[in-house]
Amino acid sequence: MKFDIKEEDMIIKPYKSEGPIYIREQKGFFQRIRRNLGWLLMLTFIAIPWIQYNGQQAVLLDVATQKFTIFTLTLFPQDFIIVAMLFMVGAFALFFVTNWLGRVWCGYTCPQTIWMLMFSWVEQRVEGTRNQRIQLDKSAWGFTKWRKKLTKHSAWLVLSLLTATSFLTYFIPAKTLYLEMLTFEWSGITSFWVFLFALCTYGNAGFLREKMCTVACPYSRFQSVMFDKDTLVVTYDSARGENRGPRKRKADPKALNLGDCVDCNLCVEVCPAGIDIRNGLQYECINCGLCIDACDDTMNKFGYEKGLIKYASGEQMAGKKTNPFRLKLVGYGVLTVMLIVAMFAWVAQRTPIEASVLRDRGALYRVNYEGLVENPYTLTIINKTQQTLHYTIAISGLAEAKLTSPDTTLIQPGMMRRIPVTVTADGFDISNKVSKVKFIIFAEEDPSISITKDSYFYKN
To answer: Which residues span the membrane (predicted)?
Structure first.
C-alpha cells in the first residue's frame, strides 16, 4: 500500500490558539437580571468593610493577629472549624443549585464573570461595537488606535487597583488602608498584595477572560457529574430550528423547507465563551442566557414565537415533565440544610472564653516554709468577646486547698493572658497522692461567661 504524503504535510506546524472573542453587547431580560445582580454584588463587596459595629469594623479578617471578626462573632484559629463548615455549606449549596439550574453561578454571580463583563463594557464604551473593535484590531497602529488602547487599558488598571484595594480592606481596616494610600504610607507588604491582586484582576478580566472559565476553573470540568436529565440548562430547540438558514422577514419558512433558526449567528456573537449553543450542551456554557436574549430579539423581528433557545431540561425537550423531587437534588438540599443547622448549633454553644491549665513541669509539687504542699500552674485565658472584661479565678473539688492568684485579671477583647497561680494545701488533710482539682474562670461583668478546666493536685 502506498501513501501519497506531501512534503508540506510532514512539517510540524506550531500551535495557534484561538483568536480573541469579540462579545456583542446585548440587551434583554436575562441581561438585566445579571447586570442588576452584578451591581448589587459589587456594591455589597465594596460596602461591607465600611460597616461599623461597636465602634470597630464589623467584618475584619485580621491574619496578622489570627483573629477574624464578623459583627458579634470573633474567631480564633481553634474556632476555624466554622470556616470549614462554611465552605462545606457553600459547596453543597453550589451542588444543589447546579443540579437544579445548571451553571447559573458562573453566569450570574461568579466574580470572574461579573468583572469580565464589566471590563468588556468599558471596552465597548472606548473602542465601539463588535465590528468596530474587530476593524480597530486589524488596522495599522496610529494615533486613534493608540489613544483608544491606552484609554481602555488605563481604565482597566484603575478598576483593577480599586478592586484590589477593596479586597484588602477585608484584611486591613478600611480607614487605615485608604488613609495610608492617600498619604503614600503603604508598607512594602501592603503594596505587594495590592499590586499583586490588581495585576491578577487586570490579567483575568482583561486578557484571560473566558479561558479562566473554560480552562482554569475546575468547576467547568466536573459540573457534568451534577447534571441529570431534569437539570435546567440553556438549550437550543433543534426540532423547531432546523433546517436553519437565512430568509427574508416575510418569507414562509415552511415553503423554503427551513426551520425557525435564521442562522443570524447572533447567539455566537453575544456568547462570553464564544460557543455555538446550537451544537448542543457544552461544558464551556456558563448558562448566562445572553444567547436567549439575542435569539428572542431575532424571533421578534421575524414574527416567530420566542423560546427557540431557552432554559429547559432534557425531559422538557422530550415532551415530559421535570421531576422536582429527584434523589440527587433532594440529597444536596438536605445535606446543605443539615450543615447550616450544624454550623449555627456550633456557634450557639461556643463559649466566648478559651482557657488552658499548664502545670509546672519542673516540679510536680513543693513544700513551703510552713510545711504546706504547693502546686504551681499557669492559666492561659483568651477573651473571645469584643468587650474588655475582668476575670476571676476560683477552684473546687479540693475543699482543703487554697488558691493564690490575682483578685481580678483585666483582658482586652481578643487578647490572651498567662496568669501564674498556686494551689496550697496541708498534705495531712488530703488522703490521696493525686487529687482532682477544677479551675473555674468567669467574667465579673457577666458570670455566664465562664469555663471550667480540670487538673490535678500532687502531694508527697
So the answer is: 36-53, 80-101, 155-172, 184-202, 329-348
Question: What is the C-alpha to C-alpha distance for residues 378 and 300, in angstroms, rounded to an integer?
Answer: 79
3-class SS of residue 161? helix
pLDDT of residue 10: 38
List the one residue out of 168, 181, 132, 167 whose CA is nearest residue 152. Answer: 132
Average pLDDT over residues 266-290: 92
Least confident of 117-121, 397-401, 424-428: 397-401
DSSP string, 292-327: HHHHHHHHHHHTPPS-SEEEE-HHHHTT----TT-H
Distance separating alpha carbons of residues 134 and 115, to the nearest angstrom: 22
The Cα 67–Cα 47 span in angstroms is 21
Compute the distance between CA of residue 275 and CA of residue 21 in angstroms, rounded to an integer.
10
How far apart CA 140 and CA 144 sit, in angstroms, is 10
Nearest to 433 by CA among 425, 442, 441, 444: 425
Residues contacting residue 90 through CB under 8 Å, at least 6 positions apart: none
- Structure confidence at residue 18 (pLDDT): 61
Q: What percent of the chain has pLDDT over 70?
A: 96
Domains of the chain: 18-350 (no CATH), 353-458 (2.60.40.10)
Rounded to an integer, the average pLDDT of 423-434 is 87
C-alpha cell at 375: 502546686
H, E, C per residue of 356-387: EEEECCCCCCEECCCCCEEEEEEEEEEECCCC
Three-state SS at 273: coil
The two beta strands, 402-404 and 366-367, are unpaired
Pairing between β-strand 59-62 and β-strand 56-57 as defined by DSSP bridges: unpaired
The pLDDT of residue 4: 45
Q: Please state the pTM of the whole predicted model.
A: 0.82
Grid cell for residue 53: 459595629
Per residue in 148-158, is it b (16+ CB within 10 Å) or e — as a string?
Answer: beeebeeebee
What are φ and ψ of residue 203, in 5° steps? -70, -45
Phi, psi angle pair for 16, to nearest 5°: -120, 115
